[in-house]
């Protein structure tokens, strides 16, 4: 029987990669839990409130988007809108070409991955360089990130050392400190030679128009200290009503993503640099990107737009731990990706219709989500959509339920089946042409069939 | 739904038992132990003969029209006002959570809500419905207790663990990554057999390290998966439902 | 052809129109997110220093200590905010080269950068820099050592207080310890793009 693509990927995953992903995510999850419960009496209450704040935002985007636009413009920021990924890429190109700018240093942004910005800009003669260490390694390897927060969780130091050697960054040395020092030395000169800093934003406060950008490495800060033009790509769902709410969300983001009270660099950017400051952008652009988000907003899965991209659901997910991020074939892996990727795919939904199946529905993702997204419920809704629309990928390996439904709504037939099932105890199961049974038995034994025994006992026993 | 507002048992302690299809088909003794334990606690147990399944397999598979057919049958079968008790967190969660999700847009949602509001997972019912906090009898054994995932965020896991821990002679051995899923996941177990088995093997590794005499849970589906995996590997482990442990403790203590 | 802006606004409105009601904005108590130890502080410096050390930062309370640290590690060439240098220069013996203009063409020359903090947060060990208060973004970032000069009365007790006091400044950055990464096999390495040593120097 055909099993699911993610299952096949997991089966073929190199043991080294599997171990790296498993250990990395397990460690991340354990540290997060310890920090949250060490600090707060009731972490769950915080997750609920944060979820309510973000739900309020996405359900009021019709007022918040024009409001934040006005605020940003008042702050001296040029605001652009991009309905599609291509529109967003074109907006970046237009800003640069109009000013004769050619070199971008990029701090990690998920939106840029989503719209395949690098590929587009390179075609138009614009050079882009990733500055987050993990993303830099992904770039020189022509690879894809496999985790939202830890892009190279799937690589080990030996592979990285080989890549550095190949790229002329020094003789083979797999000491992480040496790898990091070499990247530091190489990249700082690149920042200083670049024209444009391209970043995302973790949050945008409607009240003040402040973009909040967090990094641990300081690469976003270096981009914004060395270049003269700042372009920020921001998904339309990234808003928060006011600065005060940042106090809560920043606390949760750092703890959920990397088990830190605060990420090392938390930057609040509300416009071009001040007149007295020698370093930094004289021009600032914000491109608000839709690229499928309004379709998600119109769906019954809009809660996923609360997501703050912390990666906690990946770390805790037993399926992600077995399969790794690349199994999800999309920018957003893990539980959040299993919801978001099929939705953002729009008309290409059938190509990702299997992702929502990649869950035992254990609910661990919901339990850790800092904005309390009921991920299992959303996965179930998407399974229903996949089934309703007849997506073949969604159907692979799932037993058909029609006959079962007939049986399970007719008690007389059900009782017959309960007794009839005893045949399982006598017949070699490889003679029974039920694919689900074969798939079960490939990995496990089946217990003895005892259909009807309880009913008979209950009926015939002396009444109490 | 908010589980705090469920219908409590009346003075006559009449309850309806939803035995679940897996006990109906494979684990007759779990259903029997459920009756014996509830009756020991003074309950009058009714078993609606027409019951089949909670509807979860099709619900999880995305086939909601077929799932709703079965849920409607279940709603009709369990008509009335009595608390409905299930020896399964997973099937109970289907009734008080999953069914509500798939009936959101349906005209007969109120009937499903009515059933949801009187649905109890067994340990939750014993501890939070009947107010029984500790368990009499005795049993000399070391067990490992697997918290089934569908009772996350409910009182069931703590309720079962509290009862088991209170039994004289019984030791509950903790094991690593106790919160992890066993990998069963319904149809997931056959559409993702490798991931499912991989998850189960990790679970078994942790459990074996704790060297329990047997493995206990509130969901026989998890036990069927883990027990089946262990046996296939040639290293079988004994599995039981916690209600069998409760019943055996009573018998062993001469109380039943 | 409608513009992207019109398309997005139109789709947002169409998506939200069918909602019977919109989720309300919750109110929340600031005490919920504050570290237990940050309640009822009188002097915030000890907590700040403890938290800064917890993220591998270095709290110092005298210029002499700073000069000793720099000298011991042979960090002799640095940048200093021109407004701070007159009050600090007396403590630096000969052998140190300190420039008060940061020359970006010689980024590898500077071992340390000394700039003014605009504030700090005790519960997290965070230093706050602003565009109007920091003489050079690069000077505070590119050298291996960054020293932020801080006054006791600038220290906020907790994050909510610091957020409430965010100044009208186009660029504010909260720095919580040295620059770091765990991208390679989850192993913590400090000093990726920013400082490998983050110092807070208390001057009263």
Note down, in words, how this protein is organized.
The complex is a heterotrimer of chains A (464), B (256) and C (204). Chain A has helices at 5-12, 15-39, 43-58, 61-74, 85-99, 110-114, 117-123, 133-140, 157-166, 176-193, 219-226, 243-258, 293-298, 312-316, 318-323, 334-344, 364-368, 375-388, 392-395, 402-408, 411-420, 423-426, 435-443, 453-460; strands at residues 78-82, 103-106, 127-130, 196-199, 203-205, 211-215, 229-235, 239-240, 265-269, 283-289. Chain A is of the alpha/beta class. The longest helix of chain A has 25 residues, at 15-39. Among the domains of chain A are: 42-291, 3-Layer(aba) Sandwich (Rossmann fold), CATH 3.40.50; 403-460, no CATH class. In chain A, helix 2 (15-39) crosses helix 12, helix 3 (43-58) packs across helix 12 (243-258) and helix 16 (334-344) crosses helix 18. Chain B has twelve helices and eight strands. Chain C has 204 residues and is of the alpha/beta class. The longest helix of chain C has 13 residues, at 4-16. The mean pLDDT of chain C is 96. The interface between A and B is large, with 70 and 72 residues.
Quick structural summary:
The complex is a heterotrimer of chains A (464), B (256) and C (204). Helices cover 52% and strands 10% of the residues of chain A.
Low-confidence stretches of chain B: none
Q: What would the principal axes of the Cα set say about the shape of chain B?
A: globular
Oligomer classification: heterotrimer
Average predicted confidence as pLDDT of chain B:
96
Number of DSSP helical runs of chain B: 12
Q: Helix amount of chain B, in percent?
A: 40-55%
Q: How many domains is the backbone of chain B divided into? A: 2
Fourth CATH level, the homologous superfamily of the domain at 42-291 in chain A:
NagB/RpiA/CoA transferase-like
Instruction: Using the CA coordinates, give the radius of gyration of chain A.
Output: 26 Å
- Per the CATH scheme, the topology name of the domain at 42-291 in chain A is Rossmann fold
Number of strands of chain A: 10
The level 1 CATH classification of the domain at 42-291 in chain A is Alpha Beta
Biggest sheet architecture of chain A:
6 strands, parallel
Number of DSSP E strands of chain B: 8
How big is the Rg of chain B?
Answer: 18 Å
Helical stretch tally of chain A: 24
Structural class by helix and strand composition of chain B: alpha/beta
